Every structure is written in C-alpha cells, then in structure tokens.
Amino acid sequence: MEDDRELAPKIRALAEGERAALPLLCNAAAVLYQDMERVSWAGVYLLRGDELILGPFQGKPACIRIPLGKGVCGTAAREKCTLVVPDVHAFPGHIACDSASRSEIVVPLLDGEKVLGVLDLDSTELDRFGEQERAALEEVAGVLAGVLARGEGLL
Ligand code: SME
Q1: What is the pTM of this model?
Q2: What would the pLDDT profile of 70-80 be if each residue is shown by its tens digit?
Q3: Are 33 and 39 in contact (CB under 8 A)?
Q4: Which of 11, 56, 66, 101 is in Cβ range 3.0-4.6 Å of 122 for a Cys bridge?
C-alpha cells in the first residue's frame, strides 16, 4: 500500500456492523501485515490483570505473556503512550521474540484512561517506523479500542 492513511479506513470498514472484537482483531492484523511493507510482525496484546497476553497477530510465533512495565509493549501500556523504537538493541529490556527484529512501534489501545492492550508492529529494518506510521497506527488503535470497549466482548 502506498499510503498508510488508508489503513484505518480499511480496518474501520471491515468492522462495520460487527460487534465481536476477535474477528476484527484478526482482520486488522492481516491488513497491517499484508498492506504495510517491511513489517515482520503485526498484532495485538490484550491486558488482563497486570499482564499483556498475546492476541491475534501475523508473523512468527511470539511470547505469550508480557508483564506490565516490561519490554516495549509493557512500557507503552504502563506509560499509556506510543513508543517508536528505531533500534530495538538500544532499548533496555526489549523482549526479542524474533532475533531478526530491528525496529518496533507499540501503540496503546485506550478506552479513555483505561489500557485495554497494545498494537505492536516489528520490522527487520532499522528505523522503519516514523511519524507517518505513528499517525496511521494511532488511528488504527483508536478503531480497535473502540470495538474492544463498546463491542460485545471477544466473540
Ligand atoms: N518486542 C516486544 C515483544 C513482543 S514481540 O515484538 C511480538 C517487547 O519488547 O515488548
């Protein structure tokens, strides 16, 4: 896909009329993985208690549980802000699910102040994610958080 700004409208359209969150999260992972170039992993973790638990994703198998505050995902969830990591080797505590991963972006899924989970994308390319990707993925996260918060549960 040429323009990342098309991602959120595409995912919003797939969510139209559907109130179960799980299939939407599955399709969102597929859209992000298929449409974005040079992305090696795309998916979500959902917060349960003080742990992030692996949700729908595309890419290699990943670690299942991440404590709040740990790794890039746990830090973004605790801080409730997007983390763009141009070089994961320079991020203290980065959790390497795939040794080939070099850069990462994690966007919290927020319902107001409440953290529902995170959207996570990895790349084997250094510095893959910039401001354009951040804006597009924050919009995608808003769509996913909306379905998680106002839908009928996962299924
Ligand atoms: N690298 C992440 C772990 C999740 S995988 O990238 C899919 C982290 O440090 O939280």
Answers
A1: 0.97
A2: 999 999 999 99
A3: yes
A4: 101
